[in-house]
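Q: Got a minute? One more chain.
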Amino acid sequence: MSERKPRVLVLSQFFSPEPCAAAHRMESLARALVAAGMDVTVLAPMPSFPSGRVDAAYRGKVFLRERRDGIEIVRLLHVATARRYGRYLAWLSFAFLATLYGVLFAKRYDVVLMTSPPITLAFPAMAVRLLRGARLVVDVRDVFPDLPIQMGVWKEEGLMARLVGGLVKKLYALASLVVPVTPSAAERVRRRAGATEVFLAPNGWDRVEPRSGVIKRRNGEFVATFTGNFGVANGLDLLLDAAKLLKDDNVRIALIGGGADYHHVTARIDREAIDNVDVYGVRSRAEAMGALAESDAAVSVLREGITECIPTKLFDAFMVERPVVLSAAGEARRVVSEAVGGLCSAPGDPHSLADAVRRLTGDRDLARALGRAGRRYAAAFDRDAILAGLASRISALLE
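A: Always. Here it is, folded:
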């Protein structure tokens, strides 16, 4: 009789076909676990990001099993809403149902792996860890409660920060492995994780064939493109402020994506007649990469105070040899500076951001040189290789 494959349950709020960095990372990790010889089940809600409405193919279903690339995907109904703060209901409802599933219906797993945000997935992860005897692995894309404190959403000594801080401390204590994505996040995690092992698995690029034909260029304009989530962590108001400063510079800003702030962004563009900004909405991964390849530069903006995030869009831009214009501090700034792959502006300053774009419009040779340097730097961040290393470390937990 052949030996049973190790069973892994992956808990993720986002999963393909949802077009976001978290979904792409977790799909790549699930594939890496399958390649490492594991039996992988992903527990995720019905796809609803970024529209806030369940995708048509999944609508009206309460429970669904799929199988793709050797991965079993279990979908659960959850509260999906397009309201700006509705994501909290989506997170809480899925965490509740995932906990019930883990307690009542899930088979015995050897490993349960959760990814955060949202931190609410700690509840089903700890339930499966305690009741099913699984080893717990925590993938940390944003450090809680630190990120909401940095953004000014929570007070450091406030009730939410203390409650979530206590939850995270318990989560890390139960974990066999905690996996941050940046060096500075790893240091914060280590301070809370105690004796639990911390394994750094950074973000990187994946193999996607760009699909052209997205960007509409007019009269030799310089096109700078933002791709990704229109969320509270991204400073899209700052980018719109910079776009207004660039209205007489033959510069066009392209926005590709969607999310909680989509209607706010489009309403502001209409209200203030910011006519050098085009919004293309949500596009496939291949189309988003194609849009970057068709642009003259990529632009990445983060809210002030966010210092431990490295947007995957940086690596996307590097891989198609486009320079990055960045408005952020911390890890993102370190990556762009180390890569010599773009220009960094002062966080929170639209004038500085606009000046960085102008510098590239006036020096196309510089733009091309930065793009080539970014490509050389990004070569070391093959996401498949990084996650294969993480899969090997998870396998070692079971030996």
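A: The CA atoms of residues 322 and 368 lie 7 Å apart.
Q: Perfect, thanks.
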